[in-house]
Amino acid sequence: xxxxxxxxxxxxxxxxxxxxxxxxxxxxxxxxxxxxxxxxxxxxxxxxxxxxxxxxxxxxxxxxxxxxxxxxxxxxxxxxxxxxxxxxxxxxxxxxxxxxxxxxxxxxxxxxxxxxxxxxxxxxxxxxxxxxxxxxxxxxxxxxxxxxxxxxxxxxxxxxxxxxxxxxxxxxxxxxxxxxxxxxxxxxxxxxxxxxx
Length: 197
Description:
alpha/beta; 7 strands; 34% helix; elongated
């Protein structure tokens, strides 16, 4: 594949996923504004992924490098169902260990949803979509929650956990794309890119 690809994300997990599927790419971190009022998780991640990709596109245009390049923007959120209203509530990255503990207490023993939005830009064309995966958590004791938080792993992740690490011991099952939970639905992403080549 000779087309230049830019990943508009600093996420090491997204880098690993793109390497895993054999894409040659360059990381160009986006400085996009992530302040958003949208409450629907799918729409939220689609909008944020598009903002990230467009911010990198602007950088490339400024430097004269954008011609023919594909830019990948992505954003992931976790959403849990509010037991009172039944509506999905978005869980971002925790502010601190106490916030991580609050989120993990809410997830354990329940299903929740992981949404990843993807934006692909190339020469003025835009592909913007999201994928949803349902994740089922086993019950966790207070000590297990504290033990997991002490690893530091939850502190930089949406919903306060990473499915691919220490927390895998508490994942009972999923419905949907595993890689979507890690941070990028790489199969759909690759098929969308392939359609351009």
